[in-house]
Inverse folding.
């Protein structure tokens, strides 16, 4: 049975690292469901967070292969019991009828309205993937929508 795993890697921040790291997953037939990348305080390093589905017996082998990559400094499976995971989405709702704007403002209380014009409203929503998906479904009742999502990022709680 496949389980969802969040894999956190610290890598050297240089050209081609994302390609080489993602290629490890591709070569073994894993689909990356989500990836987020950001520089660390020391901008010579970056942290990559991957979300994949894998068999329990295969995940440890994947981690061993990742550890052998020349650009990878550290890699670990994040403990699901200690995880804090979030995603950010910018959702643009194209307003067909100006009378809908107050209703859109009402449903936007789970996020922040960051732009409003005559024809559209852009809302920033941060939270779980489920929260964002639920809001997108709700918002689609008010007009055509455009979405930009960051992908999941995660960190383990303190020990």
């Amino acid at each position: 049975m496949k389980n969802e795993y969040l894999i956190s890697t610290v890598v050297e921040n240089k050209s081609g690292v994302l390609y080489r790291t993602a290629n490890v997953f591709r070569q073994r037939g894993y689909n990356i469901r989500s990836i987020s990348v950001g520089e660390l305080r020391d901008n010579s390093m970056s942290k990559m967070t991957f979300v994949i589905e894998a068999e329990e017996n295969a995940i440890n082998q994947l981690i061993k292969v990742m550890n052998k990559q020349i650009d990878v400094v550290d890699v670990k499976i994040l403990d699901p019991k200690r995880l804090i995971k979030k995603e950010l989405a910018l959702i643009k709702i194209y307003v067909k009828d100006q009378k809908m704007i107050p209703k859109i403002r009402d449903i936007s209380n789970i996020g922040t309205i960051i732009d409003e014009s005559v024809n559209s409203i852009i809302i920033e929503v941060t939270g779980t993937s489920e929260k964002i998906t639920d809001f997108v479904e709700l918002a689609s009742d008010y007009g055509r929508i455009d979405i930009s999502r960051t992908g999941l990022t995660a960190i383990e709680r303190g020990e």
In short: The domain at 2-78 is CATH 3.30.70.260 (Alpha-Beta Plaits). The helical segments are 17-27, 56-67, 101-107, 129-139.
